[in-house]
Amino acid sequence: MDLSLAIFVQIIAAVLLIIALMVGNAVVMVYMERKVAGFIQRRPGPYEVGPWGTIQAICDSMKLLAKQLYRPGNVDLILYYLAPVLAFFPVLLLFLPIPFGPWLTALHINEGIVLILAFAGLGVLSNLLAGWASNNKFSLLGAARAVAQTVAYEIPMILALLAVVFLSGSMDLKRITEQQGQWPWEWNILLQPLAFFIYLVSLVGETNRAPFDLPEAESELTAGFHTEYSGMGFALFFLSEYANMLLVSFVAAVFFLGGYKGPIADGFWWLFIKAYAVMFFMVWIRWTFPRVRFDQLLNLNWKWLLPLGLLNLWATAIIMKIFL
Amino acid sequence: MTDPDKWLTSWRSLGALSVSRHDLAKEGLTVSAFLPLAALIQAAQELKQARYSLLDISALEAKEGFVVTYHFDSLDQPARLAIRILAPKKKPLAPSLWSIFQGAEWHEREAADFFGLVFDGNPNLVPLLLPDPDEFTGPPPLRKAEADLAPVSKLGLLAQVEILDPDFGELLGLAQVSDSRGGQA
Amino acid sequence: MTGCSLGFINPLSVLENPGTTAGDFYARNFEKKAQPGRVILNLGPQHPSTHGVLRVLCELDGEYVARCEPILGYLHRMHEKMGEVKTPWQFLPNLGRVDYLHPLAWNWAFVGAAEKLAGLTVPPRAEWLRIISCELNRISSHLLWWGAFVMDLGGFTPILYAFEEREKINDILQIITGSRLTMANFRFGGVCADGDARFFKLIQEFIPYLRERLKMYQGLVTDNVILRRRLEGVGPIDVDLCQRYGATGPILRAAGLPRDLRVDYPYGYYDQVELTIPTGPVNDSFGRYLVRLAEIETSLSIVERALKVIPDGPIIMEKAPKVSWKLPAGESYMAVEGARGQINVHLVSDGGKTPYRVKLRAPGFSNLSLFAEAAKGTLLADAIAILGSLDLVIPEIDR
Predict the structure, then answer these.
(1) End-to-end alpha-carbon separation of chain A, Å?
(2) pLDDT (tens digit, 9 = 90+) per residue, C84-123?
(3) A133-162 pLDDT, tens digit each
(4) Alpha carbon distance A233, A240 (integer Å)
(5) Which of B22, B29, B102, B110 to mutate to test the interface with C (most CBs of C within 10 A)?
């Protein structure tokens, strides 16, 4: 068989698997979010549908599928319907370079992290389009916030990842994983604790999750950029939010937590365990902290995370020049 | 200045129509006075300077006209008092206290909603609690039928009253008239 | 800006030409004074942070609130008219519905006004029962405010903790009021039901329990750095502003004045209770937050004191007024310290079957009226925080 055809078939199969992963992830995350929220708030969470309420998320998605698509008057039809689709599909590409196991990478490319960061920037475009096309002032304000926030938080995120790239001398996600060992003390998190911290903060900002959920701050902007979406339009935003969370958690796992490597046997299970641990952290802080104000959010970014990231990068570079 | 007697003196000099002393425990007020419409602003200004704040504006419709009661309380010690005006039925126009107590705007709008009073100087005299004029065209809801109206003298607003203005006394049907108008009784 | 090539209507285009937006009477009225190029944002009457049906029109300059105006009346029920067409007895249940968070204070204000007017005396046990139930009710009101306020700031969890305590208080108050929300157990000359042994036992258990929980809230919520950054220095309300708008209650106390009707005009047996009035160290939103939490402590100690001294005896006076009771002619003005400030009832009677005039002074009404001035020039998020810190209950404001 032709080699390019083989790669093509591989990518098609991978994309299908990734769609399945995204939907499955959303189901798991909805359940996890609601159960964790319930636990934090001293209530049972979903427990009626299925054993321990496990089917709740599936019922929710059925409801969203069956719901009427309500479109307010005076929206821009093309952009209004394009926005949720645009939120959903770029995320598919982002999972391609993630190494799930030693031989389990959908598309092995040398600059995997560049691809991820480049396409991750597309997500905010959909937020902007949704906010602009909805003909709603809350949406517009939410979109403006989304752009300012996501653009700002990409920078410390890149700086944090760059420090690890310096360390391993590669942008290849597989090589970065391979350079870390099986045991936790062999992971990059010990070499780059500050970078991990910066990454952890900025991934919350990047995915617009509480306490940095300014674009959809419900007490101020009702639901921000997706105020006017119902049914599947809303569901696509929802899916892509969880997919984005999964992606940044995967990246965190690969860069700082040893990727698919782990005690006893390497494999994709370790990657998933680590990624879901990061996601659990995001859920945990969402239900614990109040929301920051927008100027505080940007101050945190420009006055703390960015200088710290730069310092960390310089220190890494200098230490590597001297000792390695 | 939280001494009730001092307020009585001050109101007398403003040309009060009548002044009354109240039992704080029973009626919840120390003193009150009926002031002419023109003296209301001046009295409110004095109260503001003495660190009083406007609690509410309570209007009611009596036979002689609209009695609008302004309740004030001191910020420094318990000394609640009231100023009343009697707005005529035919032309229910009262001066607005908005320029002195900005909180009066809403209280006045409420009274305008319920009684159809007009407050001269209120910057935004549109319906507050009632729907906008496009939707609600009925009469002011707290206006009473002619038969249900009671005279002011029956409402107990004038406990231990001292009528200072003979015309006012005549209007209310009260005989007790003090001749030393404006002076200390 | 012009519309893009997709045939799209630019949402900003209408903002550049004020007067062209479709809106109701109030929006058009508000827009008359708007500067061109500014966004007019209509918060409410259905908006997550307006706690019901408050509507606030804002003129936004970027994210700054250049001007705003609360629009009331979406929950207006004309309680004052009902007071004029019903006998005092028939009007009583209405008082539980004016402010659903602190109904017993409204009960007390109206019942107290009528008692003053008619010169009724209340038996001691009833007075103490009133104090106990009213203070427990105040705690539950403050707790709900606390949860809802933190929710306004984006913290979802505390409200569920607050509700846990509220449930306990409701369980207690249900015993003597028979209801969990719109309580109306005050009668002219007493209260309608006595507390049994379980009632007093539950309160005894509740006081130390809540004290423990308050300590936990201090660590979990009050000392949270994000919460403090959101509140400190936001929306200062000084004494001058309070004076001009007639703001009372925790807002005035946070501004630094120890005014509390329970001390100034002691009604009931409050003169037999030692009361420390918490005042705010600062007059911003955080000061108001601290004052309310401190008031929970104060209320707890009042209840504790009341439990010690409550005597046995009748709970309602002999020959208490019946349904057809007529108020004697006269005027009375009763002021009660509610959870939100001064609740005043101005009762005027001409001796007829029904009161001649019932004026209900809602504390939230005056407190909200200063919002337009306090929120001027703040960020939208801060304006929401200020709105939350005023502790608004819309049914009470609209009456």
Answers:
(1) 44
(2) 888 888 888 888 888 888 999 999 999 998 888 888 888 8
(3) 887 888 888 888 888 888 888 889 999 988
(4) 11
(5) B102
- Which secondary-structure segment (H or E) carries C373? helix C371-374
Q: What is the mean pLDDT of residues B108-132?
A: 86
- ipTM associated with this complex: 0.84
* Kind plus residue range of the DSSP H or E element containing B25: helix B24-27
Contact C81, C309 (CB under 8 A): no
- In terms of residue numbers, what domain contains B55? 4-172
- For residues C355-377, give the mean pLDDT: 89
Confidence at A1, pLDDT banded by 50, 70, 90: low
Contact A222, A138 (CB under 8 A): yes
Searching chain C, which residue's CA lies closest to the CA of residue B142?
C81
Q: SS3 of A76, please?
A: coil
**Chain B meets chain A (3+ C-beta pairs below 8 A):** no
Q: Is C44 left (phi over 0), alpha (psi -120 to 50) or beta?
A: left
Please choose, from the candidates A226, A229, A277, A232, the residue with its C-alpha nearest in 3D space to the C-alpha of residue A250. Answer: A277
Please state whether beta strands B81-87 and B66-74 pair in parallel, antiparallel, or not at all (unpaired): antiparallel
At residue A102, does pLDDT exceed 70? yes
Best of C77, C331, C340, C360 to disrupt the B interface (most B CBs within 10 Å) is C331
Number of domains in chain B: 1
Instruction: Sort residue C167 into left (φ over 0), alpha (ψ -120 to 50) or beta.
Output: alpha
How many domains, chain A? 1
Residue C187 is classified by DSSP as: E
User: Residue C12's pLDDT is what?
Assistant: 52
Fold of C79-398: Cytochrome-c3 Hydrogenase; chain B (1.10.645)
Domain boundaries, chain C: 13-71, 79-398
